[in-house]
Structure formats: structure tokens, C-alpha cells
Amino acid sequence: MQMYIPGNCIMLKDERIRTDSRFISGVKYQDSGDFEEAEKLYNELLEQYPDDFELRQRISYVLVHRGKAGDARRHLERAVEMQPDNAMARYNLGMVVELSGDQDAAMASLRQALALKPDFYYAQSAIASILLPYEHYMEILRRFHQWLRPSSYVEIGVEAGASMVLAEPPTVCIGIDPDPQIQCKFTAPTRIFSETSDEFFKNHDLREELGGRTIDLAFIDGLHHFDAALKDFINIERFSSKNTVVMIHDCIPLDKITSVRSRATVFWSGDTWKIIPVLKYFRPDLNIITIPTPPTGLSVVTNLDPESRVLGEKLDDIVEEYMLMDYDSLGQEKDDILNVIYDDWPSIQARIR
């Protein structure tokens, strides 16, 4: 998590500061990482301009980098007093308060920022990082690859390839995405299919594409709709074994606005989370855990059965029923409904194998 200072485009309350040599030099010191010199100059300016909102923001940023979170907090609290409706100031205050370990106060400030600006990606990401205490989901994916050393890996929703690149030789990899924008160099033998997952499973025999292998490890991170994720799971299970591990992203929704089907925010998980209660109800034989990893959780499903046809046969009825379910239905039982666990890594491994 980090503070956000809007650089040289800030609007200072007193435009005379902008031409003050101390301010000009302070910005240069700040941008170059010389926070000690920047602090000295900003303190001088604050003696002359004590009520300048943006100057308070700038010095707080510098103080955080100087290891003076307490002083930064006092400046930001003053900034919030001056502009109580400024979402960015409340966000920055939340970030600084969180550094002190006061998560309740940090969450209160971040939620106030979000109330002022509902589509506030920085605040949403910060709240998710506090609520979900594990390391980032990419690191969890890396752990799975290093632990399982899968002979085969299938990923649905490749985008730039940031998660796909975690696979290492000799893992044989298949990536599926209708519009891949690969920006990574893969080391494992990898093929990317530029089509939707529905088209892929209609047009290809996955076992054949994997050289006769079943799937060892799969990651579902495509269209953020539960019915799409469910169809992907059904198709993957057909090519699975008892030892297959399937990971599904975006299974812990942050709030109602970011978990709707029609995207209305930058931070967005869609309604993918519904796949967990679906699988729990219709496939109680599956082993399902959800790891609280930011930004939106990662579910892990094992004990697959390639012969099962329950989900496919009931698919239309399932979609019709669960389409009506929304975030409010989770209530206070969200962790239980989504099988969220707070175990350490060895305990997670024990649950899977």
C-alpha cells in the first residue's frame, strides 16, 4: 500500500508558493528521493503558509519516507480538518494510520474516502489488503507452482501473461484468452489460444493439446461472471484426475458495488464468488478452500471427478437460480459461505494433499 501525492499538478491554496524557491527546490528534492532536505524546506514553508492543504499532503508524504509516520498523521489530520470532503486526504490518512498498526482507525478513514468517492480504486485496494491478510495472489500462485511442479498447466484468462509466466520447465502450458496481450517471455513450453474458453473446449481436445496428459494445475481467471467460471470448471474437470488442483480467482467480493455483473468500478471482481456456494451445494464431494489473498481472494478446488456430469446436466437451472443471488445474501456469514480459511501455508498444503 502507498500514499498518493498528485505530483506537480497539485493546486496550492496560495499560488505564491508555486514560485517560492523553497517550494521549487523541495519538490526537486522530493522527486529525487532526498526527503531530508525536502522536509526542511516544506517545514519552512508551513511556518509562512500553515493552512495550505496541499503542502500538508506533500510534507506528510516526505515524513512517511523519513520514518516519521506519527508526524505525517498529524499533518494529514489537519488536512482533513481543512477539507473534510476530500477523499484523497482521507485515503492518505488511512494509509499512514495503518502504518502504526491501528487497523480500525485506518479502515474508518478509508471507508470515509470510499463514501466520498465510490469508484476509488486506491481506497478499495487498500481496504482489500487489510481485510485479506495473506500475501498477494500472484505470490500464492507462485507457491503452488513451486510446490506442485505440475507436468501440465492450463490458464483461462491470460491477459499480459503475468501469472502464466510463473510456470517453469518442464511444465507444459496452455493459455486461453480471446484477446491476449502478452508482455512476458515464457520459459516453460507454452501455447496461447486466442479464443474464448467456450470456443476452445468446443474446437479442441485438451488432453490431446497437452500431449495425452490430464491437467495437474489450472487457474480460472477469465470473464468475471460465475456462470462463465462454472462452465470453465466443468470443462476443466473433464480432463482432470484425482490429483488435479484448480484455482479460481476473485472469489472474495469486497462489497456490493464491486461485485455486480455489469462493471461499474475500476476495482471489480464481478460475481465470480457465486461459484463457491454452487460447488458446495451441488458437489459436496469436492474439497474447497478459499485463501484470503488480496485483492479478491483465491479459491482452491481438489478431489475432482472427471466422470461427474452433475454440474453440466443442471447448468441451466443453476444459472437461473444463482443469477438472483447478490452480495447482500452473504451477510455476516461470508467467510463460512465462501469457505475462507486463515491457515498458514503448511496447513493449506495439508488441506490440499
Q: What keyword list fits this structure?
A:
353 residues, alpha/beta, Serine Threonine Protein Phosphatase 5, Tetratricopeptide repeat, Rossmann fold, 7 strands, elongated, 17 helices
State the gist of this model.
This protein has 353 residues and is of the alpha/beta class.
Structural account:
There is one protein chain. The protein is α/β, with parallel strands linked by helices and 353 residues long. It folds into two domains: 18-131, Tetratricopeptide repeat domain (Serine Threonine Protein Phosphatase 5, Tetratricopeptide repeat, Alpha Horseshoe); 137-352, Rossmann fold (3-Layer(aba) Sandwich). 46% of the residues lie in helices and 9% in strands. The chain has 17 helices and seven strands. It has helices at residues 16-19, 21-32, 35-48, 53-65, 69-82, 87-99, 103-116, 121-131, 137-148, 197-203, 206-209, 226-237, 275-282, 310-313, 315-322, 334-337, 345-352, and strands at 152-156, 172-176, 190-193, 217-220, 245-249, 287-291, 298-302. A seven-stranded mixed beta sheet has the order 3-2-1-4-5-7-6, with helices on both faces. A hairpin with a 6-residue loop joins strand 6 (287-291) and strand 7 (298-302). Helix 4 (53-65) runs antiparallel to helix 5 and helix 6 (87-99) packs antiparallel against helix 7 (103-116). The longest helix has 14 residues, at 35-48. The two termini are 33 Å apart. The model is unreliable at 6-12 (pLDDT under 50).
